[in-house]
Design goal:
The chain has helices spanning about 15-40, 45-50, 55-85, 85-105, 110-140, 145-185, 185-200, 215-235, 245-265, 280-310, 315-320, 325-345, 345-370, 375-380, 380-400, 410-440, 445-480, 480-485. It is mainly alpha-helical.
Length: about 500
């Protein structure tokens, strides 16, 4: 580290206590803003469709294009931040996100909006691994639990509260132009984040002459592999016929080639992603749990919004408000979970998964038993239970997953973790969405039946994550006599 003043531009020094939390605050605001745009656009689709005369394929690309480009750049952007400085990557990503948000809000045609969303998603993918890497850089050991708790709350709340904020903005802006404010709201926040990010975030921590090689073949293999896996998932409704699913095994083969290349590249220099991280049980298991959990978790809000607006005729604002109990439960439990994870480890994650599965099951049961009660009321308590469980999953699991990742690999390690989350989200929405739409053809009360089946499908996917967590707890319990006295890392 150099001897420059902590926190000064270009400094690699560790910031003092107050400055560390200020830097973290800027990062969390940026993470909230970029993750919010995954779900906030859902409730804007009807007004956007009318205003731009967009067809269903256009709308699908408005949603899926963001997720696709987001997932593509996570690992390369994380590695770039590791090598060239996380502040540089963060400021660039937020500046690009702000610009593309303005362009999306000004869109005059579907093509214009799709192009802006693709760039906006890529910018979000640049930002997010820097936030996680920043926590790894500024905090050490058990001290990381609290900031990871706040990051977990940010992830959970941004995903859950997106429809509510979108509904509020559309109600304020009117049915014709309200959708534009869904994008414009990012602009003033982004400008402030750019200025504060440059001022507060620490600069480069690696020597300027070190680790300059950037593994372009690894970038290409990972990009092609992720694209082949994600594309048929995010375009499942627009690409008809089964042949599109051939891209998934092709993508998996390409990703296997990426792993082989990274192993070989590591003999000559720092790879894009060090696959030896999967040799740490904490990282391998935590990544698996994250992939499965996000496969069930993200799909909940997709089907809930469709059910409330299209099936039951609620407004965008009411549809968004109905998810608020989940967001509140997630916010509170994330902060608590961040403080408890060092004491309880993986069992805390398992408790959270049980709560989520239970809450979703109760929501499906409540709709079945009391069909005459307004949906937002009958699902409020079950969603609160599920939200509390979610708060005990996301932040603690992220803390445990990254506990053994070295700081120089924090960005790429976090990027790969988030790439798995994006793939899980896309796959989960594809599976749960297929169950939902197939059940709509069942006849009487089809919408409620479709929603119930979809909730149970989401719960089943999350239950797979619970099986993985349970297996780790059993294994850890059997090995406890040999590991007594060691800190919790899995």
């Amino acid at each position: 580290m150099n001897s420059a003043e902590p926190g000064a531009p270009g400094s690699g020094a560790v910031l003092d206590g107050r400055r560390r939390w200020q830097a973290l605050g800027v990062g969390l605001v940026a993470a909230f803003m970029t993750l919010l745009d995954i779900s906030i656009v859902n409730v804007a689709l009807p007004s956007l469709e009318r205003a731009l005369r967009a067809d269903p394929s256009d709308l699908q690309w408005v949603l899926s294009g963001y997720a696709l480009s987001f997932g593509l750049v996570l690992v390369p952007a994380g590695r770039f931040g590791d090598v060239r400085g996380r502040r540089n990557a963060f400021v660039f990503g937020i500046a690009l996100f702000t610009l593309t948000s303005a362009l999306a809000g000004l869109a005059q045609s579907p093509g214009w909006l799709i192009a802006a969303r693709l760039l906006q998603g890529a910018a979000a993918g640049v930002v997010n691994p820097q936030v996680t890497g920043l926590i790894q850089q500024l905090f050490a050991g058990p001290e990381r639990a609290r900031p990871f708790g706040w990051l977990g709350a940010t992830i959970g709340i941004s995903t859950a509260i997106g429809p509510l904020l979108g509904g509020l903005l559309i109600a304020a802006g009117g049915p014709e132009h309200g959708w534009r404010w869904v994008f414009f709201v990012n602009v003033p926040v982004g400008i402030v984040a750019v200025l504060l990010g440059w001022r507060l975030l620490p600069g480069r921590v690696t020597p300027r002459g070190a680790q300059r090689r950037f593994d372009p073949i690894g970038v290409l293999l990972l990009g092609v592999g992720v694209t082949l896996v994600l594309l048929p998932l995010v375009q499942r409704e627009q690409w008809h016929g089964p042949t599109k699913w051939l891209l998934v095994p092709a993508g998996l083969v390409t990703l296997a080639g990426f792993v082989g290349w990274e192993r070989r590249y590591a003999r000559h220099g720092p790879p894009l992603f060090d696959v030896r991280l999967f040799g740490h049980r904490s990282y391998a298991l935590g990544s698996t749990i994250a992939l499965l959990y996000f496969g069930g978790f993200t799909a909940i809000f997709f089907i809930f919004t469709l059910y409330l607006q299209n099936g039951r005729g609620y407004s965008a604002l009411v549809a968004g408000a109905a998810i608020t109990p989940f967001a509140l439960g997630s916010a509170v439990a994330s902060a608590v979970g961040g403080r408890l994870v060092n004491r309880y480890g993986r069992p805390l994650v398992a408790i959270g998964l049980v709560a989520v599965v239970t809450g979703l099951g109760l929501a499906a049961l409540a709709i079945e038993l009391v069909p005459r009660v307004p949906v937002p009321w009958v699902t409020a308590l079950p969603l609160l239970v599920a939200g509390i469980g979610s708060g005990l999953v996301i932040a603690p699991n992220q803390t445990l997953t990254l506990s053994e990742v070295p700081v120089p690999q924090a960005g790429s390690g976090a990027g790969m973790l988030q790439t798995g989350q994006r793939i899980g989200s896309a796959a989960g929405i594809a599976v749960v969405g297929a169950v939902f739409f197939s059940a709509l053809a069942d006849g009487a009360d089809a919408w409620s039946r479709a929603f119930e089946r979809s909730l149970l499908t989401s719960a089943a996917i999350i239950a797979l994550a619970l099986v993985a967590a349970g297996a780790d707890i059993v294994r850890n319990h059997r090995g406890r006599p040999r590991e007594r006295g060691r800190p919790v890392t899995h």
